[in-house]
Amino acid sequence: MTTLLIRTDSVDNFFARARDAARKADCGDNFHEKMTITFEDPQQMFMVLSVARRRIMIEVMKKPQTIRDLVHNLNRNRSTIVKDIRFLEQKGLLICQKSSVENNAGEKIIKSVAPRIELFAMLG
Q1: pLDDT (tens digit, 9 = 90+) per residue, 25-63?
Q2: What is the C-alpha separation between 83 and 112, in angstroms, rounded?
Q3: What strands lie across the sheet with 108-112, from one edge to the other?
Q4: Per-position DSSP letters for 83-111, written without gaps between them
Q5: Strand, helix or coil at 4?
Q6: What angle do CA 68, 86, 122 make, to 5 degrees?
Q7: Segment 57-99, tens digit of pLDDT
Q8: Fold classification of 3-120 (topology level)
Q9: Could you state, in order of their start, the residue ranges of all structural domains in the chain?
Q10: pLDDT of residue 1
Q11: DSSP secondary structure code for residue 31 in this structure
Q12: How far is CA 103 from the centre of its chain?
C-alpha cells in the first residue's frame, strides 16, 4: 500500500464509496494502492490521532524503529509509548514485528502501514 487516507465523512458517503469499490471489484478493475479509514466525528479522529500518537507515526514513517529508539527520539516514557503503539496497531495504523537483527534481538520493530498518510477533517 502506498497511501493511507484518514478522513472524516458521513456514513452515507462511506457506504457510497464502498459500493463504488464493490462495483470496481465486480468489473475486475484495479484498485489504487490506497486504504481509507473514515471517522464520522472529527473529534473522534483527533482523539485516536493525538499529538503524541501522530509523533510516533511520523517517526516510524521516516524509518522503522524499535521501542527503545522511539523512547529516545521522542523523549517519552516507555510504558506510554508501548500503550500508544498497541493502540495504533489495533487501529491498523502501525505494524509491529519481532526483530531479526542481532543488535535488536527480541525487540519489536515498529513500522508504518504506508509511506504516505493523508489526514482530512471536514467540519460542518
Answers
A1: 888 877 677 788 888 888 889 999 999 999 999 999 999
A2: 16
A3: 65-66, 108-112, 94-98
A4: HHHHHHHHTTSEEEEE--SGGGTTPEEEE
A5: strand
A6: 115
A7: 999 999 999 999 999 999 999 999 999 999 999 999 999 988 7
A8: Arc Repressor Mutant, subunit A (1.10.10)
A9: 3-120
A10: 60
A11: P
A12: 27
Residue pair 115/61 in contact (Cβ under 8 Å)? The answer is: yes
- Grid coordinates of 56: 510516533
Helices (H), the chain: 11-27, 42-48, 51-62, 67-74, 78-90
Q: Which of 54, 62, 58 is nearest to 121 (CA)?
A: 54
Contact present, 60 and 84 (Cβ < 8 Å):
no
| Cα separation, 116 vs 118, whole angstroms | 7
Cell of 93: 495504523
- Cα separation, 88 vs 49, whole angstroms: 9
Q: If you search the block for the grid coordinates 516514557, which residue do you land on?
A: 77
